[in-house]
Amino acid sequence: MEKKTAQLKTEGNAFYKDKNIRSAIGRYHRALLLLRSIDSDVTTSVKGFGPETPVLTPEQEALLRNTQVDCYNNLAACLLQRKTVDYTRVQEYSLRVLKWRPGNAKALYRAGVATLEMGDAETAKEYLIQASKEQPNDVTAENRKDRKVGFLATQSNIVHKMLLKAKEALHALLNCLCDCSCLVSDMNVNFVTFQ
């Protein structure tokens, strides 16, 4: 099984390099499905049903987790390459990686991108800053963080300006309503007086 999952992962990597994202996703998913059958986190909840899975040695457990981390990281990377990105799944896969490898810079970065696109700028900023801390000498990660943090600042300014305009519009509307109610009130007085 280890050889088959390694082969699927390698094929997925080759498809990714060739920009055949759909096939890469398929290989990573198949590798993860095979790994689920031996993952103690999954199989312990269904003990007593089906065949018993062998207990993994610490080395096998480490290999399992490393392969899962790679496949989930690669799946998130693939999803970010699609025309229509499912940011919820990118975030989900990245958070799975972070569950097992809390300091994984790639997962932190991808979680940050997905979280930002889902509208949570503050949490996204935390992920992106942590990613740059995990790889402080990685100029690419630092540039990405700077671009994303700059984007966050721009977005924050845009939202602030929109809120100010909304506030001004609300004040104008309230003034208009007050003027209208005064006008209606004056009309009622004139109408009552005229009769």
TrEMBL record:
Entries under InterPro entries matching the protein: AIP/AIPL1/TTC9, TPR-like_helical_dom_sf, TPR_rpt
Superkingdom per UniProt: Eukaryota
Family annotation (SMART domains): TPR
Keyword line: Repeat, TPR repeat
TPR repeats: 105-138
Keyword Transcription regulation (UniProt): no
Keyword Magnesium: no
Family named by the database record: Belongs to the TTC9 family.
Protein name: Tetratricopeptide repeat protein 9C
Record lineage: Eukaryota, Metazoa, Chordata, Craniata, Vertebrata
